[in-house]
Write a structure and sequence with these properties.
Elements: H1 2-30, H2 33-63, H3 67-96, H4 100-127
Length: about 130
């Protein structure tokens, strides 16, 4: 089971890294920003669901071997639930009302959460 936890956590980290540093930036590079925003807005709910589901699976698999990475992966799941259910609607609302200050603050918070999650995923992977 340790190998399964290791592979699943590597997939989680790879997917999160690709979305953050591959998919989203490439969209902004290739398309006008007014076209990118609806694509990302439509993509984020699925991205968050994938991260939630995969981090829970990873936590369960890791928990069979080592509780520390399981707790770390559980924290990724919990913080992603917060980002999806609480933060994302607030970011969308700020964008809809063209409140650049609130959008910047909320989006900045989501970026910080994402970076922390990436660091936690690396930590969990190293512990496995």
């Amino acid at each position: 089971m340790q190998d399964a936890a290791l592979i699943a956590t590597a997939i989680l980290l790879g997917g999160m890294t690709f979305f953050s540093f591959g998919f989203a930036p490439v969209l902004f590079k290739l398309l006008p920003s007014q076209d990118v925003r609806p694509i990302l807005r439509g993509t984020f709910p699925y991205y968050y669901l994938t991260v939630i589901a995969l981090s829970i699976v990873c936590a369960i698999l890791a928990g069979l071997h080592n509780p520390t990475p399981a707790l770390i992966l559980g924290a990724i799941a919990a913080s992603t639930i917060y980002a999806r259910q609480m933060l994302m609607p607030q970011i969308n609302a700020a964008s809809d009302r063209d409140d650049k200050r609130a959008f910047g603050r909320l989006h900045g918070a989501s970026v910080v959460i994402q970076l922390i999650q990436l660091g936690l995923a690396v930590w969990a992977l190293l512990l496995l």
